[in-house]
Amino acid sequence: MSEQMTASVDVDLSQPSILSRRSPWRPLLLLGGLVVLVMLPYWIYPPVAMDILCWGLFAISVDLLLGFTGLLSFGHAAFWGGSAYATGLIATTWGVPFPVAVLGGAAFAMLIAVPIGFLSVRRTGIYFAMVTLAFAQMLYFIANQARDLTGGENGLQGIPRSFFGIEAIEQDSFYFYYAGAALILVGIIIAWRVVNSPFGRVITAVRDNPARARALGYDVERYKIGAFVISAGLAGLAGGVFAISHGFASLQELVWTTSGKVVLVTVLGGIGTLWGGLVGAGVVVTLEDSLASSGFEGIGMITGAIFVVIVLLFRHGIWGTGRDLVRRWVIDRRSRPRG
Amino acid sequence: MRSRKIHGSLAIAASASLALAACGGAGGPQSGGSSGLSDGKVVIGLLNDQSGVYKDVSGPNSGVAIQMAIDDYKAKYGDKAVAKTIELVQADHQNKADIANSKAQEMYDRQKADVILDVPNSAAALAVATQAANKKKLYINISAGTTALTGAKCNKYTFHWAYNTGVLARGTAGAITKGGGTTWNIVYPDYAFGQDMNKSFTAQVQAAGGTVGQSIASPFPSDNFATFLTKAGEGNPKVVGSMHAGGDLINFVKQFNQSPLKGKVTLAVGLMFITDIHSLGLDQFAGTQFTDAWYWNFDAQNRAWADRFKAKTNVRPSFANAANYSAAMNYLEAVQAAGTDNADKIVAQLEGKKINDVFLRNGEVRKADHAVVHDVYLAKVKSSASEDWDYEEILKTIPAAEAYGPANPACKLG
Q1: Of B15, B192, B220, which is closest to A147 when you measure between CB atoms?
Q2: Contacts of A155 in chain B (CB under 8 A)
Q3: CA distance A165 to A170
Q4: Which residues form the Leucine-binding protein domain (chain B) (predicted)?
Q5: What's the rounded Cα separation, in Å, for the pair A296 and A163?
Q6: What is the DSSP letter of B392?
Q7: pLDDT single digits (tens) B50-100
Q8: Is the ipTM of this structure higher than 0.90?
Q9: Could you read off the pLDDT of A232-281 as tens digits, one per residue?
Q10: Are B172 and B289 in contact (CB under 8 A)?
């Protein structure tokens, strides 16, 4: 499974990325991204806009593993949901400002990722996916049973959204969006830095040829655990903001279909593109939201059909296909004789 | 780089001021002239499962029921109606609490819903109740059964209309035990709903003078109940109680029918809807006893309403459909009486109101905890039907006070 997955990923480092430092596209794209980030709650209902960003970072965290480390985790709901509950409990118990609670949740996600990563990175492909799924299910059942702590299937309700007494952010989901978006942005920047760091180069090498990476003296397993824990932290950051945004954490956050959904979002956006996660989340969350009030009954059918079309026709996802088109256009223009 | 930063902060500042302006606009007076209605109309939101497991119990057909209430209200008051324009907006929460939460906010804020109805799934219902309290708008829960809505998590703007898990226990366990089924074994799924049901059933059996030999936890979800059925037969109980719901219940009942227990003991089910009987068939459920909040063929009044419903949907209504009708109708009556859709005034209208309608018999909107108490029924599944959907024999009417018990002291309104 992972062989096939990674085979379809080709981040060709010899080609200039459209986001690389020298690319003329870079300022334009970054500015465009910033404008979209700022304007999103004007276009879309603010809580839904917040959901898009949370799912976007969640998908980026999965992409960090799937696209850059070559590990398909099928249990990332454990970190998203684990952090949602931890964030909720911290915010409820101590009433701290929500960014502190979210960071606490992310730290909790990283903490549980250490043993899970330690035990699961020894396997690859379908076995890795199954082991992570098993751990996520364990967490799901613990949350289901520990009802004094988590509220069982009623969920952890009424998580406060305190932010230094600034009422606009605490009460109005429009202003809260900007406060939450800042946290998500931090997560995105971390992911970007990780991918473009020496560490990122090593995990990409591990993905492409683990034997060679080992021969070069890198401790392959340790790098994998590192990537796993960072990814869990990012998923936790996203899950924490999600819980604060909604004011509750429910079992839905831990159930295995959430792990499946985030892989779908990642594939839809484009594996190994990092930014694709945000695009995929935009598509899936908006679709779920608009179909919910459409009166149409087959919501699963539509998202499923879109997924099939993307996987069959656009192997690199929405972002990846767009990037390839731009690249081809740039190369065509360069190779055309001047004058 | 610097210029971009400046542009960025300019954009943020500009958007913030725009937003402030927008909020200022929205904060102004909203009443639609003399009618006393916000935005000049009444908007009823229906938020439930329109595509998943609860679709048949209370899905799009509850929308049909609410539309019937709107039509009836308009026909009743004609030109004197306070609410001249009544809109019904619907959304599918897909059984996900987070979607329910966003959709509820959107309904209250954007679609200007004055009341949200239904919302199955207890996590979703509790999330919507929190939003109702935040936004100071009404929420009338119908198909979620959790007692937390009228207990620790109750609030001024939330009402619980049709039933709750406590009612099921008092009804089924109390009535069967008093009727001679004094020795019980209970099998329950091992999660919060099942554990709660087991606890309240055990308490009610004992209160009625019976004994519970064993309480057996089964994993959730489960396909194979063979070992639990064997255990449930130990000690020759008169009654075996199943606290399962949905797919688990169907599996349990199928396997119960193939076990030697069939015919020897009474099968009592904690939570069952008429749609469960419809999907599995009478032969599977025959003889099972359970508590129903309402049955379409109970009397002429119910039947007349069910006929109207069938003309529109081609199926008979579940109790949740009828409860949605009743809640929408009584909400509109309260608007009529108050002359406004202001939530606080509607709450004042509803609190303590005694209601008798097609769904509620001897009904009362209890002021202490906002539970809407009413008579419920102990039902037995028939072995043969004389017409479509003729599935239940009503053994006993359980009076409201007995079914609901005293108000939950954990609920502090005010």
Answers
A1: B192
A2: 97, 123, 126-127
A3: 8
A4: 42-383
A5: 39
A6: E
A7: 887 788 888 899 999 999 999 999 999 999 999 999 999 999 998 889 999
A8: no
A9: 999 999 999 999 999 999 999 999 999 999 999 999 999 999 999 999 99
A10: yes
Q: Is B235 left (phi over 0), alpha (psi -120 to 50) or beta?
A: left
B106 part of contact set with chain A, CB < 8 Å: yes
Q: State the DSSP code for B31.
A: B
B205: tokens are: 């059996």
* Amino acid letter, A229: V
Residue position matching structure tokens 């949200």: B116
Return d(Cα A89, Cα A154) in angstroms, integer. Answer: 15
What six digits make up the tokens of B33?
Answer: 């002239």
Torsion sign across C-alpha atoms B290, B296, B299, B302: positive
Is B19 an interface residue toward A (CB < 8 Å)? yes
Q: How far is CA B111 from CA B38, B42, B69, B341, B400, in A?
A: 12, 11, 20, 15, 36
A2-334 architecture in CATH?
Answer: Orthogonal Bundle (1.10)
Q: Exposed (0-12), middle (13-18) or buried (19+): which is B199, by Cβ within 10 Å?
A: middle
pTM tops 0.80, yes or no? yes
- Exposure class string for B352-379: b at 16+ Cβ within 10 A, else e: ebebebbbbbebbbbebbbbbbbbbbbb
Which residue has tokens 């937390």?
A: B148
- B55 with A297: Cβ contact below 8 A: yes
Q: What is the residue extent of each domain of chain A? A: 2-334
What domains are there in chain B, each with its CATH number? Answer: 35-163+298-374 (3.40.50.2300), 166-292 (3.40.50.2300)
DSSP strand pairing (B158-160 vs B183-189): unpaired
Q: Which residue of A has its CA nearest to B193?
A: A153
CA distances from B112 to A40, A177, A270, B30, B43 (A): 21, 21, 38, 11, 7
